[in-house]
Amino acid sequence: MTNQEALVNYCLRLADNNLILGHRLSELSGKGPFLEEDIATTNIALDLIGQASSLLQYAAEVEGKGRTEDDLAFLRGEREFYNTLLAEQENKDFAVTIARQFLTDAFDYFFYDELKKSADARLAALAEKSHKEITYHLRHTSKWMERLGEGTEESHRRIQDAVDNLWRFTGELFEMNEVDEILLKEKIAVDLNVVKIQWDKLVAEVFANSGISIPENVFMQRGSREGKHTEKLGYLLAEMQHLHRAFPGVQW
Hints:
By secondary structure, this protein is mostly helical. It has one domain: Ferritin (Up-down Bundle), CATH 1.20.1260. The chain has ten helices and no strands. It is globular, with a radius of gyration of 18 Å. The protein starts with a helix and ends in a 6-residue tail after the last helix.
């Protein structure tokens, strides 16, 4: 794998996380538990899709094959996406949405803080902008974890169940492969071992404040680094890509 191929894959990995999670949150537009939270969720979705757009633009430029950000978003198949398995999980209920978002926000907060130091000026600039948005996302979901965990018996049960079901997808957040090895040598990528130490500490702190137990002895699901996903991504892409595939080249 060349340095160019590694950088394209890295950008796609980051973009796909934001694009898929942003789409998941957009599914809740107009369905929030109350108006303010509906607006907050929609705004977070917009932030994520905006971050994905910038990263896809950069990936297309580095690739140099004449593809656009729309091509990369709407014309790739399931095995060509590299988003985490966590990002593609369905909303199910509000507790699942919050738990999924918090676990991702906690990772992104430390990841993008490290990415600001990247030797790649474009990625560093994107990380600088994204980190400001993620700071608000993390503050929002951390408070919700505490509200649900320390709320009623029902809310506590639901948020604990959500964490128990999603925890198996957190291991691969810190998985590194050849792409990371190549870009770490160039001081472009982030060392995920550093991020994990910070993530573990924050998650443990928020869980302790929320009365939530950290699941133990969980078998971690992996595969997204090689484009292997749960069955949920295929359904999501069928919906997300339908218009663009039905009317190739369509523009608003």
